Amino acid sequence: MTLLLPSQDQQAAVPGILGGLGPMAHVQFEQRLIQRSAERGARCDQDHPVWLLINGTTIPNRTESLQGTGPDCVPGLVRYAQLLERAGANFLIVTCNTAHGFYDQVQAQLGIPWIHLMTCTSRHIHQTYPTVQRVGVLATDGTVQCGLYSRSLGQMGLTPMGFELKSPWQDLVMQAIYHPDWGIKTTGTQVSTKALTVLEQATNWLKTQGAEVVIAGCTELSVAFAQMPSLPLPWVDPLDVVADITLDLAWGYRSLPLWQAA
User: Fold this and answer.
1) Domain residue limits at 170
2) What does the CA dihedral 123, 259, 118, 244 come to, rounded to 10 degrees?
């Protein structure tokens, strides 16, 4: 197969996007890439970077895999990531927060760096909100269980705030994502009023506890938050953060070796 990838003088690196976790996540991410490119001056097709995408919907549920209640998702993550690498990707973006619970296992089997959502997001908050100390996080049980944002925020000297596993609030956040009738994974882009209400109430509760900003720590929440006219707190979308980094790496404004240990 002949791959029409950009030459070195056109583009410094080719992003590989592992999406499908869930199906809307990479769509949202690609929309951010296109929007950010336009904001940077893209005016025609050729002004946008080439990227590679796999819609890896066959990868088992990441939260269930982390909790030991479902199949191991590492083989699927590795298989698709290696396919992107063989196709010519120079670095990997996985549009699923919970999948980062398997970061070390997957990265060890790749020859290209996987850009870490939590590390990038925590750095962004530290740099963009220098006076903020307390950061709210809405995320899946798997992300909470692994302490993915707690660890990366702590490394930046920030205090993470979220809901404990099995708590009523955390159960509601999980329902907003997974409920078979009104959850975001079920309704897709048409986020239900009930899911939006739950997320607004959860964010407001974090605000009453002292949170100063909130992270949409699940790509389904990125879909929902983007449809809410206002929130009780400023919110940070990891997809936006990584979209900017992806474009910087693609065009050579940042160097890939700096992100090997992201």
Assistant:
1) 118-237
2) 70
CA angle 183, 185, 191 (to 5 degrees): 60
Whether 96 is catalytic: yes
Q: Are residues 62 and 164 in the same domain?
A: no
Tens-place pLDDT, residues 130-175: 999 999 999 999 999 999 999 999 999 999 999 999 999 999 999 9
Asked if 107 and 160 sit in the same domain, the reply is no
Look at the pTM and tell me if it is higher than 0.85: yes
Q: Which two tokens stand for residue 114?
A: 């996987």
CA distance 221 to 102: 20
Average pLDDT, the chain: 92
Paired with 54 in beta bridges are 18
| Secondary structure string (H, E, C) spanning 71-104 | CCCHHHHHHHHHHHHHHCCCEEEECCCHHHHHHH
Burial class for 166, CB neighbours closer than 10 Å (0-12, 13-18, 19+)? exposed
Residues 72, 170, single domain; the answer is no
Task: Let me know: does 118 contact 215? Beta carbons within 8 Å.
Answer: no
Same domain, 129 and 232: yes
Residue 218 is among the residues annotated as catalytic for this protein: yes
Give the CATH number for residue 86. 3.40.50.1860
pLDDT, tens digit (0-9, with 9 covering 90-100), for 188-203: 888 999 999 999 999 9
Sign (positive/negative) of CA torsion 165, 67, 261, 34?
Answer: negative
Q: Of the residues 73, 120, 146, 218, which is catalytic?
A: 218
Among 44, 73, 96, 120, the active-site one is 96
- The total number of structural domains that make up the chain: 2
Residue 90 lies in a domain: yes
- Taking only the tens place, the pLDDT of each residue in 120-141 is 999 999 999 999 999 999 999 9
